[in-house]
Write a structure and sequence with these properties.
four-stranded antiparallel β-sheet, alpha+beta
Amino acid sequence: MQTWRCLFLLTFVMTLGCIVGDQLTTITIQPDGSTDVVTWRSNQHSTSTGDDAVRELAEYKARFEQQNGDEFNHIRRADGEIIQSVWLRENAPFANVIKARLPSAESLEKYFSNPPEDAQFSMVGTFRQDGLQRKLTIRIHVPADQTGKSSATSQSVSELLQESANGISQTRIAVANGTIIQAKGFIVASDGQSALLDVSNILNTLQSEGGNSEFWLLWKINQ
């Protein structure tokens, strides 16, 4: 489903065969728009068995060591730099960490935008400065015939819990030297320094707004 594909781009899920596990990506935005991206992965394992599992795990390990997975390519498409990629656990279930740098506001905008050649949906990120205020906006367009197929509210509590048990994936945006004052599509931390991407809210908003929606974080630089 294209709605889910769009959200997969937002949460930076890298699908390699049937490898699953937990992931936390923290995106720290500086006042000038330059950004640090750190992704932690743990309990990365194959849901297959036998030779298929051996092959999938070997492919996963090779791609990580060659910095050739979707997430590495995502950074490079945004004119970013891979600073470090290291194993925390080299045997399945794998654990690793990737640290990357987006050098400018333009690079940040590319990071939150899908490639121009992908006509199946549209996602455009923009970063704006106005005095002490900063705003990151993510505009998403999904074809109308796709928006009714992915509603978080249609899932039961047990289904949502099962999804979390299968693997946790979270994206946190932190603002350096700032406090978030407004958000849509995010759950803001109590201290206002960071916010989690709210996938359920985004899915339901896309559905209710006909597949054309904007999500944003607005923050103020601390003096």
